[in-house]
């Protein structure tokens, strides 16, 4: 499993995939990456420390992800991230959090003392598909509610059951309401949520221009950021 990488095209930054405690929700229908969660705190701290030792600060920007929210990282790991920020001159952090922690985002900003770009797994702004099929447990109704807390939504495209209209609306919302965003093209995993190859083909053709958009990162594979397996 790769846990350190450098993103050198858009929004240049280093990225680390750390281990975290179990996701507090843990019930999204499409998610099997919570398998990377752990309850072995000392082992997690050790591994995270090792991964963080790769950070050089060459871009002054660091993204920290884990298979849960940043709030599920062990306290000692947060402290280790803080030390890396100071040692390597990191000026900006990217973090990811579930909707349920929306009122706690500033806690991390205060703790680290540098700007944090918050990503959120929205998957889709279609409330019915997100809540009743994907079981995301993010009960906002309007994109503006998300934009009030988060900087950068992550969308998923190409799931069986999604429609072209849903995707087109999601991308329009992303471009109109947010400065940054990520689009994950869905790939099959161990869950019963399946990809729709025809829809993915349509998306790649219709939205090929997004690859050139500096504000949107399109991941055709989960490992396109260079971390994961
Ligand atoms: S919130 Fe994220 S980590 Fe937790 S179950 Fe959902 S997709 Fe998986």
UniProtKB/TrEMBL annotation:
<dbReference type="InterPro" id="IPR058240">
    <property type="entry name" value="rSAM_sf"/>
</dbReference>
<dbReference type="GO" id="GO:0051536">
    <property type="term" value="F:iron-sulfur cluster binding"/>
</dbReference>
<dbReference type="InterPro" id="IPR006638">
    <property type="entry name" value="Elp3/MiaA/NifB-like_rSAM"/>
</dbReference>
<protein>
    <recommendedName>
        <fullName>Elp3/MiaA/NifB-like radical SAM core domain-containing protein</fullName>
    </recommendedName>
</protein>
<dbReference type="GO" id="GO:0003824">
    <property type="term" value="F:catalytic activity"/>
</dbReference>
<feature type="domain" description="Elp3/MiaA/NifB-like radical SAM core">
    <location>
        <begin position="13"/>
        <end position="213"/>
    </location>
</feature>
